[in-house]
Specification:
This protein is α+β, with helices and mostly antiparallel strands. The protein has one domain: Peptide Deformylase (Alpha-Beta Complex), CATH 3.90.45. 22% of the residues lie in helices and 30% in strands. It has four helices and seven strands; from the N terminus they run βαβββββαααβ. The strands form two sheets. A five-stranded antiparallel beta sheet has the order 2-3-4-5-6, sandwiched between helices. It is globular. It starts with a strand and ends in a 6-residue tail after the last strand. The model has no long low-confidence stretch (mean pLDDT 96). Bound molecules: zinc ion. The site of zinc ion has 4 residues, from α2.
């Protein structure tokens, strides 16, 4: 089932997610629904906060990047991350033009480090420790932030953010069109 994506301004996007346990109700169905939702909106990553759940769960499918030269290895890069913990980030910071399904029509350059080492559980609660780099690291770093209540607008300077404030206001007021199902925050009277 395709779920609505929660847009910027919904308080759940600012919540630090709870640690997941295997008895979380209908977890496998929730993960399947998140993939359906992500594909319906042409995303490459989606965090639980973006469908209104404050838990430490995100999904990634980087395969659309496999068409680009040098990224063929991402052809089958489809993963579920539960209770992720970044162990270390290394390498130089590099800029990449990021988008976010919770911020329709908004893209800007974000600096992040090249490599991330992560401990996480897969959808069967099997533990993994893995190192990711390049685009894969980038998507994981962005989604990891989401499950801690951090957004990509927090990763740019105050000045840059100020320049985006008009666009951000339009999103919180529900005045931006999205090509996918989206849930705008309730407007205060
Ligand atoms: Zn995002």
């Amino acid at each position: 089932m395709v779920l609505p994506v929660y847009a910027y301004g919904n308080p759940v996007l600012r919540e630090d997610g709870e640690t997941l346990t295997p008895d979380y109700p209908d977890l496998q169905q929730l993960i399947d629904d998140m993939f359906e939702t992500m594909y319906a909106s042409n995303g490459v990553g989606l965090a639980a906060q973006q469908i209104g759940k404050s838990i430490r769960l995100f999904i990634v499918d980087a395969s659309p990047f496999a068409e680009d030269e040098g990224y063929e290895h991402l052809k089958d890069f489809k993963k579920v991350f539960i209770n992720p913990e970044i162990i270390e980030e290394t390498g130089d910071e590099w800029a990449f033009n990021e988008g976010c399904l919770s911020f329709p029509e908004l893209r800007f350059d974000v600096d992040r480090q090249e490599t991330v080492k992560l401990k996480y559980l897969d959808r069967d609660f099997k533990e993994h420790t893995e190192v990711f780099d390049g685009i894969a690291a980038r998507i994981i770093q962005h989604e990891y932030d989401h499950v801690k209540g951090v957004l990509f607008i927090d990763r740019i300077s105050g000045l840059k953010r100020k320049m985006l404030s008009k666009k951000l206001n339009l999103i919180t007021k529900g005045m931006v069109r999205a090509s996918y199902k989206i849930k705008y925050p309730k407007l205060k009277k």
